[in-house]
Amino acid sequence: MISLEYVPVGKQKMQEWYGHPPVNIVNGKLAPDLEWWKKYMVRITLPFRLELDYAPKTYMVRPYVNKHIGPALVDAFEEILDFYGVGEIEHFHLNLSSGIYKRKFQRGANDTLSLHSYGAAIDYLPNFGKWGEKSRIPHVVHVAFEERGFMNYPHTDGFHWQGARGV
Ligand SMILES: [Zn+2]
């Protein structure tokens, strides 16, 4: 099994590990930072394609992620694929994602960036519990992420998995 090499705890350790893209607001929007991107973001190949829940028929196959979560993330999806197989993954709608990299602040914050801004979080299976609901994601899926060091908030944000704690 390939786990996260290191799971930072707290904002400062998280920023040291995943890099800290500066908060640049251009025309009211968070602008990407190319220097940070080049240093930290890599492309991974997922073992099965994920469909974007907000853009049906749009698939994510080789997404960019922070280099520090890439190997563990691919390995978690390998385990899910081994357990279900492609047919069941499609049948049970275990292929929906709301994405990985997004420049945005944390919910309700205007100065703290979301872990998605670091490429260090994935939103997977929003169809098994929206934000604010208790998550209904299958146990096998939960364990595949949790045993590799990812964490979520099963009572409020079960589809969000991040490679850091206390942030
Ligand atoms: Zn999320």
Provide a descriptive summary of the structure in words.
- It is a single chain.
- The protein has helices spanning 11-18, 34-40, 70-91, 139-146, and strands spanning 24-26, 29-31, 41-43, 50-52, 59-60, 64-66, 96-99, 121-124, 151-153, 157-162.
- It has one domain.
- Helix 3 (70-91) packs antiparallel against helix 4.
- The chain is of the alpha+beta class and 167 residues long.
- It is globular, with a radius of gyration of 15 Å.
- Strand 1 (24-26) and strand 2 form a beta hairpin.
- The strands form 3 sheets. Strands 5-4-7-8-10-9 form a 6-stranded mixed beta sheet, with no helix packed on it. The protein has a two-stranded antiparallel sheet with strand order 1-2. It has a two-stranded antiparallel sheet with strand order 3-6.
- The longest helix has 22 residues, at 70-91.
- The chain has 4 helices and 10 strands.
- The structure holds zinc ion.
- Residues 116, 121, 123, 160 line the site of zinc ion.
Helix content: 25-40%
Main sheet overview:
6 strands, mixed
Radius of gyration: 15 Å
Task: List bound small molecules.
Answer: zinc ion
Multimeric state of these chains? single chain
Query: β content, as a range?
Result: 15-25%
Mean pLDDT: 93
Q: How many helical stretches?
A: 4
Q: Which structural class best describes the helix and strand composition?
A: alpha+beta
- Strand order of the biggest β-sheet: 5-4-7-8-10-9
> Shape, please?
globular
Q: How many domains in all? A: 1
Distance between the termini: 25 Å
Taking pLDDT < 50 over at least 5 consecutive residues as the criterion, the unreliable ranges are none
Helix/strand order, N-terminal first: HEEHEEEEHEEHEE
| Number of β-strand runs | 10
